[in-house]
Amino acid sequence: MTKLHLKEKLSYAMGDAAANLVWRGALAYLAVFYTDTFGLTAAAALLFLVVRLSDGISDIIMGMVADRTHTKWGKFRPWILWSTPLLALFMVLCFTTPNFSDTNKLIYAYITYIGLTLAYTLNNVPYSALMGVMTPDDKERTSLSGFRFAGAFAGGLLVMGFLPDLVNLFGQGDSALGYQRTMYFFAFILTILMLITFGGTKERVLTPSESSHSLKSELLDLSKSLPFIILPLLAITLFFYYRDLYSGIFFCIVFCSMWLVIKRVKKLDSSQLSSTQIDMVNLLTNKPWLILLGIGFLTMMFNGIKYGVIAYYFKYQIGDELLAGKYFIALLVVSIFGALSTDYLARLVGKSKLLIIALLLSGILTVGFFWVPTDNLMAVFVLGCSAEFFAAMMPTLYFSMLGDSADYSEWKNGRRATGLIYSAGTFVQKTGGGFAGALVLVVLSSYGYNGMDSSTISDALPGMTLLMSWIPASFAFAGAALMLLYPLTNDQNKMISTELDQRRLEVSAI
Predict the structure, then answer these.
(1) Same domain, 256 and 281
(2) Can you say whether residue 478 is alpha, beta or left, with left for phi > 0 and alpha for psi between -120 and 50 degrees?
(3) Are 251 and 185 part of one and the same domain?
(4) Does position 354 have pLDDT exceeding 90, yes or no?
């Protein structure tokens, strides 16, 4: 088993600290920048929708491209190096306000925002997959995942805690100039941190290429499999938004059809399938990964709803809008400790059991917001931070367990598509985050909320309370129930790792 040095774990963590300068900085503040500084109108909403739907597909494609990359630096590390200049560039361009007409500004926003999300995909999908090949030891992956998310929360803390102050400092009253200069500063930090990750990590889990086809033919083959990605997302989206008989029928038809197609394809001889088709079939018949797919969606719904309603809760329930910033900082500080505690606790009780415990305890504590008095700030902060301590373990365990599902796939099928497994995992998390944001608006609108009409606020307060308590908690409880079906225990992971190590030694000896 490969024991990773502290230096390498810290180097890997720097990558997600850098990525969260974009994820929690650029992407979190971009909407308010577009409307209040850049000057876009409601047309920006369509921009976010279009990019959100295309982003998930690009994740899958990037995962497959990375799996088929072969360089002296490995499969995934080169992409971190190659994508960093693009990520830094588009980070600055997105927050630059050119002197264009309204139409040209919208075109500029589309180009730069799509460029930023594509650069983020080129960087973050290989970065996530890198965890799965740095060590074959599932326990070391859990530790590595803890360091990763400690870095992520630290990067988020820097942005969410200081971005508005830096805009004021660098802009001196000119918010457009302030945003641009702040992004220059963050882009510089991002570049340094990504270079540390590239130089300080190493890929050790190496598998021979099994594809004799060119990358072009593989991508063309992938395009034929895209309906398996797009149709389920479309069915879920329609059922989510319309919740009527027709969307329900479409949902059932799509998923029943996919199940029948998968059963038929499984009966075919592998010689009749391309490597891309084999990877897709292996993925869709990988029970641990399928359960994790659901867990990724449910945990993002849980966390996304909680974070999405905080600003409303503090503005209208607590009556202090600025206090929301201090609450965010408190949550992120606690998250660092939660992420770093995950490895120790997982060794004591096992990853799947710990995830069930984290889901249940965080859900129960979140329900407490239904009864906590809004004038008791101490109770609000203590309850929120306690729930966040366990919530921080969810992504830490999730990405570690994705590596376990990659081991399981290689052990069962003799193939390892690490990039595809991780990219599909990040895709479903992004989808969950998008649905969480939409659900917040759906619930508020059902209570008649209109931000431009103060008379609607009092009627919407019960909805905000539910969004802080029972609604997100229900997704945590559903996740805990789903995890009861997860088949891989610590002993099974150890057995699989041992067998895979023996296979790799036999292959290398030939």
Answers:
(1) no
(2) alpha
(3) no
(4) yes
> Which residue range(s) make up the domain with 472?
274-510
Read off the pLDDT of residues 75-88 as tens digits, 9 standing for 90 and up.
889 999 999 999 99
The answer to whether the beta carbons of residues 84 and 123 sit under 8 Å apart is yes
CATH of the domain at 143: 1.20.1250.20
Q: What is the DSSP string of 132-170?
A: HHH-S-HHHHHHHHHHHHHHHHHHHHHHHHHHHHHHHHH
Residue 64: name the closest of 75, 52, 53 by CA: 75
pLDDT tens for residues 188-233?
A: 999 999 999 999 998 887 655 444 455 565 556 556 555 666 666 6
Same-domain pairing of 297 and 441: yes
SS3 at position 47: helix
Mean pLDDT (whole number) for 310-320: 79
Q: Write down the pTM of the prediction.
A: 0.71
pLDDT digits (tens, 9 = 90+) for 45-56: 455 555 665 666
Residue 217 lies in a domain: no
Residues 60, 157 within the same domain? yes
CA distance 138 to 490: 9
- What is the per-residue burial (b if ≥16 Cβ within 10 Å, else e) of 353-362? bbbbbbbbbb
